[in-house]
């Protein structure tokens, strides 16, 4: 906790956040100055986090981000496999909002209608340690992993090892549909989320990131309504510099403890919206 940015301290002094987006950095800076001019001394700035889009829609670990988002009933059409939830799961004051669905519960003030709760996080990414872990362990996947007479190249084995940590290949191709080799046909909007985890051959590990954070077909243990009620609409943008050759050279000189506790200058700025 002592290393947390002041904006995330437990003092209770953080009462709000402004999110400023533009294609141009200068536009963001100008708008930030405009906001400061409007509020003047009535607010105290606790911090400023500057994100930027990297080429290829990827975060620093290399994976395409923002693929799976819920759709809201009555506010557009869901793509195949996309979770369709009641609007009140995300927007206060509508069906799906637990307060609206329970009239005897203590109601929120009227001004909260059509609002949502925002969670903002700064997720530091130890990219070099992650890359090193994959490099040291990808050989645990046998070359004949499909066990159907087809052999994987070393590069394919390395990609598959990383994909099994996340649940998708870096491109976004889901393991549940393309379990051994990266088949780019599954990037089509009608395919990329159109899957579940009912397969019997362990295509996507239980421990994979997307399987843990967004479970599918979990009955009879959890109902669809329970899972749908827990979704968030989220957005992320990378922050920090690209890794340099000099940084990689310095990393190679570190011991294990130094690598584990290394202070990383890059990561993901994450925002999530939900009514719960």
From TrEMBL:
<protein>
    <recommendedName>
        <fullName>DyP dimeric alpha+beta barrel domain-containing protein</fullName>
    </recommendedName>
</protein>
<keyword id="KW-0349">Heme</keyword>
<dbReference type="InterPro" id="IPR049509">
    <property type="entry name" value="DyP_N"/>
</dbReference>
<dbReference type="GO" id="GO:0004601">
    <property type="term" value="F:peroxidase activity"/>
</dbReference>
<dbReference type="Pfam" id="PF21105">
    <property type="entry name" value="DyP_N"/>
</dbReference>
<comment type="similarity">
    <text>Belongs to the DyP-type peroxidase family.</text>
</comment>
<dbReference type="GO" id="GO:0046872">
    <property type="term" value="F:metal ion binding"/>
</dbReference>
<keyword id="KW-0479">Metal-binding</keyword>
<keyword id="KW-0560">Oxidoreductase</keyword>
<feature type="domain" description="DyP dimeric alpha+beta barrel">
    <location>
        <begin position="3"/>
        <end position="55"/>
    </location>
</feature>
<keyword id="KW-0408">Iron</keyword>
<keyword id="KW-0575">Peroxidase</keyword>
<dbReference type="InterPro" id="IPR011008">
    <property type="entry name" value="Dimeric_a/b-barrel"/>
</dbReference>
<dbReference type="GO" id="GO:0020037">
    <property type="term" value="F:heme binding"/>
</dbReference>
<dbReference type="InterPro" id="IPR006314">
    <property type="entry name" value="Dyp_peroxidase"/>
</dbReference>
<dbReference type="GO" id="GO:0005829">
    <property type="term" value="C:cytosol"/>
</dbReference>
